[in-house]
Amino acid sequence: MKRPTVLLASLSLLVGLSAPAPAVAAASAQPDKITVIGDSILTAVQWNPQPLAILEHGLPTIDLQIAVCRSLIGLGCPFEGQRPPNLVDLVQSLGDEIGSTVVVEVGYNDREDGFAAAVDDSVRALLAAGVQRILWVNYHDWVPLYAQLNTDLAQAVAKYPQVTIVDWRDDSLNRYSWFQSDGVHLVFQGAVELATLINQALIDALAPPLVAHAPAVTVTQVGSKYTAQLGVSGGIGPFRWRVMGQRLGRGLHLLSNGVLTGTPTRAGRMRIHLQVSDSSGALAVLQLVLTIRPRAATL
After folding, report:
1. What is the pLDDT of residues 200-226, one digit of tens each?
2. Where residue 200 sits, what CATH number does that domain have?
3. 3-class SS of residue 298
4. What mean pLDDT, rounded, does the chain reach?
5. Residue 20: is its pLDDT beyond 60?
6. Which domain holds residue 286?
7. Does residue 295 surpass a pLDDT of 90?
8. 231 within domain boundaries
9. Looking at the structure, do residues 201 and 60 belong to the same domain, yes or no?
10. DSSP, residue by residue, 184-247
């Protein structure tokens, strides 16, 4: 069955002049809430049940603040007789109701010559509102203008560790069938793909930090088979373990899945430095002291 196409309003790239962001009072964002601030691109997700379900799957409360013609600062283009509040004004109006995690998919409607400053104003407004992490969706590289927006965006947020780029540009590269004829707005499959990308970015961002744990048993004996599973909490699987620096004692081996096994041949206390990595590239280090007792005397 042919999937439906989502018809969206066209974008206006020429918007009101850039203006400095107004001061935003410090606030306390909602810790278990995600706010998604978007323009007409994300209406393809909001207005279709399947992409919307994909976006929300496995996540805490999501508040969708999506409006056609939204801009970062200044005046957005008119749609159905109204202009939506820009991102900075919206953040102010939300106050304490904004989530501590915010997804931003806005920027096509801002002037190119003031875009970097608009991004900076937006990030500062979000942080002043108590937002702890910002996931910013970059732009489909359909025309040179959008390529420049991506460059300006990356440079503008580089100084903010709270901001992560969600790379829609690379994910959608050469995927022309995901887009309407303007190369910006989405058909149904594009909405599914963008929802999937944002959902995974949120799951990655909200994952607890990676922590390595020692096995329950750290004592063995020369000549006795030893097997122990190293532990992991947090992070995003799959996980991969390795030995750092020195080799393990003769007879012992570490498998990449964190199983420490073998038959030791020499008694003593062995100090082992281990490292585990997860699928996002996060690392955790574990210092393990393994006690190997002498072989039991035989009578």
Report:
1. 999 989 988 899 999 999 999 999 999
2. 3.40.50.1110
3. coil
4. 88
5. no
6. 211-293
7. no
8. yes
9. yes
10. SSB-HHHHHHHHHHHHHHHHHHHSPPPEEE--S--EEETTS-EEEE-EEESS-S--EEEE-SSP
